[in-house]
Structure formats: C-alpha cells, structure tokens
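Person: Please comment on this record:
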Amino acid sequence: MKNAVALIRVSTRNQFNNGGSVEDQEAQIRQYASEAGLNICEVVKIQQSGSKQVLNVGQLSETINRAKELGCAICVTRTDRLSRDTISLLMLKKASAESGVEIHVTTLKRTINEISDLEWTLMSVMAEQERNTIIARAKRACRNNVGPIGKEISIEMMNKRSAEKRRSLAQNWAQSVRLRQHIEEAITQLKVPNLKNTARWLNGEGVLTRRGGKWTGSNLHSQIQRLNWNWRELAKSC
C-alpha cells in the first residue's frame, strides 16, 4: 500500500479555526484513499488564499518536497485546493511528472498526470476565473458596509485586526516551511551568525521569503520581529 500526504487548504482564518471545511476535506480524502489503496501518512493543513499559493513558494512547494522525500503521493479534494493560479497549476502538472510525485484529485478520481494537457489547461483557467468572480462578488458585498452588518469599525480596530491577521498568516507560513529550524541550523553552521550572514545562508540553501524573494539582513530582521521571535534568544539557544 502506497503512502500519501493529504493536502488541505482553506482560504480564511475563520474556516481554518472552525474546522468544518478542514474536516470535510480530510474525510473525503481518507475515503478516497481507502478506495484507492492509499495510506494517509501525514495531513498538511494550509490557510492561504488560492491566488497566493504558487508552486515555487511556501507551503505548496514544501509539501511537494516533503512528499518526494517520503516517496509519497499527494491527495487533494479539488483542483482549486492546490492553487487558483493558472500558471502554477500548469507548472504543477509538469513538476508532478518530472518528480514522480503523483497528485490525486479525489473528486475526479484521477491523478493530474492522467488528465490530458488540454483538459488540465481548461481546468486551471477556470480555477483562476472562479477566484476572480469570488473577489468581485466580495467587493460588491462590502462596498457599502465597513463592518459586519454595516456596523462601523474604527480605523484603530481595523489596523489592529489587520496586524493580527498578518501575524497569524506569517506564523502559519513560517511553521509550514520550518523557517525557525532553518535559522537555527544556519546559526550553528556559521562562524559569525549575524542577520546578514544568516540571510546569505538561507539564500544558499534555497529558502525563499514568503513572497518568493531573496533574504537580506533587513527583511530577515523584520520577519523575526513580525513572528515575535528574539534574535538574541535564537542565537543563545543554538
């Protein structure tokens, strides 16, 4: 029986915390796995917009690398749980074929490599188009409402909620890509473990920022502050 990693993605923090959508996706994947003769050895839960989940950055990339290391397949409920970015979905099909990591879509009862290039292209375009429709509908619904049911929210409260959401997303991302472990490893390997040298080490190891860019001492310092980590404590612990 081949092992598989269950990949579960929801777009909002509320969906992630309440668990309804998460539990539904996991139940569907486990039922499919049982029928397909797969053993779910690990469950990866991601809270991120489908438009921001791209192939070469963050949780999706980490999950594929993890599955490759374990010799596992990946199971998702629908195509849009992988991404809602057309280019990323097209690249993902090629990456799956080249890496040997099979990606099962439970609603289709097929792997993405069993889907023709033409059909996959159409599905990818539709996933991105659906995302654009959702965004447009949300904007129309919120146009005349500052807060829930039209309740006015102060600028201070909006800024506070925004900061909390950014911090939560940053923490989820850092955990999924094992950023702290990478930093601690850099500190133990470097002769002079300062921010600048640590950033260079992360770049050399292919660890990208959340936006898929290169690390610098400055943006590494900002990320550590956003995550409420203490650089001196990190250095001492290693």
Notes: The first strand starts at residue 2 and ends at 10. Residues 155-237 form one domain.
